[in-house]
Design the sequence.
């Protein structure tokens, strides 16, 4: 497991936000390191933060995500962890009050 205290945006997440923009034929979505110390990333729609995703533990160590597992443990283990993540979060809704949920953004960008 990662002992790095500062989260770095993974190429996996950068590729996923680009894939979303391409799929929607736009360039309005972006990600940056979160200003919230308990989150990894802020999702932007143009210049507005629309979601903060990815938990960071109280000790400053980020929880692992697919991109981190991929880099540190390899694809086979990352896929196993992704499957477990999806099972744990299967009942979470993608849309809440006509807004894309933080859960959806987390699944799309981090898993």
Sequence:
């Amino acid at each position: 497991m990662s002992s790095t205290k500062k989260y770095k945006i993974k190429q996996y997440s950068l590729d996923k936000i680009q894939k979303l923009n391409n799929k929607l034929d736009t360039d309005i979505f972006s990600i940056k390191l979160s200003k919230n110390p308990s989150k990894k990333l802020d999702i932007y729609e143009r210049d507005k933060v629309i979601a903060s995703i990815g938990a960071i533990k109280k000790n400053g160590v980020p929880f692992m995500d697919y991109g981190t597992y991929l880099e540190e443990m390899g694809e086979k283990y990352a896929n196993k962890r992704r499957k477990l993540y999806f099972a744990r979060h299967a009942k979470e809704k993608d849309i809440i009050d006509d807004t894309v949920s933080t859960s959806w953004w987390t699944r799309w960008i981090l898993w």
